[in-house]
């Protein structure tokens, strides 16, 4: 067994699907652990991997362990699997929890890599930051990069930056969904049908993001391209600046960064 995924929730299954869809590993090479797999009524699709309700049994059978549980339960999970963990690679996506914290609860021989992905990984448009702990080997980093690049793009960063990444790209999809929803509401307010308003809002956000990626131009330049003298856009922008949308987004990201740090201390 090459990989054990502990926690088959939103992010655990998102990465599982990415790993399988991109042929990084086969279902027979993966075991997933989650208490819910023992429940009769769970309705998740695990795509044919083996599953168990026992983290210990899963870890025993794999060389690489993906930790996809909530930060609040991570310590307990690590303590439960410690005796089966010698010489293994641990990949943790838990917000806020440092590689040092993780190592404290594992045998000396373990290697640890921290990753901060985001949910657009489900459609192969994720962005993931990768912070290798001291003992991680080049092969370990390559393996993790392969997973992250399979579901979007992986970038290697120093660990002291990972809380900032968590607040920006880890949490960021939620902020963009709020913006999309608000734009659609604005369309409805102005007489468009809900379906049309939502389609226009989504495609505007997706297209604008694609423009930044494809042209490499500064967002300010692209904004100026939309903005005719005395026209509609500059009148809209005046409201955005008056109400402080930039400040709101900066504060939101900063609060999320702070919360990530707090989770690491809990
Ligand atoms: N949802 C997101 O957008 C992102 C989440 N993360 C991180 O991913 C981790 C998982 O988050 P989500 O998938 O959103 O949460 P989730 O609640 O969807 O999934 C957590 C899973 O862990 C399982 N679980 C609970 N206790 C367990 C235990 N003792 N042993 C094994 N499994 C157990 C739960 O049954 C659940 O299926 C968190 O640490 C979070 O910080 C990181 C980046 C983005
Ligand atoms: O909200 C959270 O704590 C997780 C980490 C980043 C995105 N979701």
Can you offer a commentary on this structure?
There is one protein chain. Helix content is 52%, strand content 14%. It is an alpha/beta fold and 266 residues long. The structure holds 1,4-dihydronicotinamide adenine dinucleotide (NAI) and (2S)-3,4-dihydro-2H-pyrrole-2-carboxylic acid (A1CAB). Pathway: Amino-acid biosynthesis; L-proline biosynthesis; L-proline from L-glutamate 5-semialdehyde: step 1/1. Catalyzes the reduction of 1-pyrroline-5-carboxylate (PCA) to L-proline. Belongs to the pyrroline-5-carboxylate reductase family.
Q: Which helices and strands occur, and which strands form pairs?
A:
Blueprint: E1 3-6, H1 10-21, E2 30-33, E3 50-52, H2 55-60, E4 64-67, H3 71-81, E5 89-92, H4 99-104, E6 111-116, E7 126-132, H5 138-150, E8 152-156, H6 162-170, H7 172-189, H8 194-215, H9 219-226, H10 232-243, H11 245-265
Parallel strand pairs: 1-2, 1-4, 2-3, 4-5, 5-6, 7-8
Antiparallel strand pairs: 6-7
The protein binds 1,4-dihydronicotinamide adenine dinucleotide (NAI) and (2S)-3,4-dihydro-2H-pyrrole-2-carboxylic acid.
1,4-dihydronicotinamide adenine dinucleotide binds next to helix 1 and helix 3.
Short description:
This protein is an alpha/beta fold. It has eleven helices and eight strands.
């Amino acid at each position: 067994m090459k990989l054990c995924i502990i926690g088959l929730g939103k992010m655990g299954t998102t990465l599982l699907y990415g790993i399988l869809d991109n042929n990084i590993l086969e279902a027979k090479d993966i075991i997933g652990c989650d208490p819910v797999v023992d429940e009769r009524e769970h309705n998740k699709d695990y795509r044919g991997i083996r599953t168990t309700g026992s983290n210990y049994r899963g870890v025993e059978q794999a060389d690489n362990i993906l930790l996809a549980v909530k930060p609040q339960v991570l310590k307990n999970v690590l303590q439960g699997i410690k005796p089966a963990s010698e010489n293994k690679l641990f990949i943790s996506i838990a917000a806020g929890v440092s590689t040092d914290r993780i190592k404290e609860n594992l045998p000396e021989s373990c290697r640890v890599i921290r990753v901060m992905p985001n949910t657009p990984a489900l459609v192969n448009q994720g962005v993931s930051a990768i912070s290798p702990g001291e003992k991680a080997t080049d092969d370990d980093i390559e393996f993790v990069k392969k997973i992250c690049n399979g579901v979007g793009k992986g970038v290697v960063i120093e660990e002291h930056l990972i809380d900032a990444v968590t607040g920006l790209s880890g949490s960021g999809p939620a902020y963009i969904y709020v913006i999309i929803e608000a734009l659609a509401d604005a369309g409805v307010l102005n007489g468009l049908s809900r379906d049309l308003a939502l389609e226009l809002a989504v495609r505007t956000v997706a297209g604008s993001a694609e423009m930044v990626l494809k042209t490499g131009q500064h967002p300010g330049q692209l904004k100026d391209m939309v903005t005719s003298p005395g026209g509609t856009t500059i009148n809209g922008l005046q409201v955005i600046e008056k109400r402080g949308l930039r400040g709101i987004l900066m504060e939101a990201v900063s609060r999320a960064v702070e919360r990530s740090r707090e989770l690491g201390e809990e």
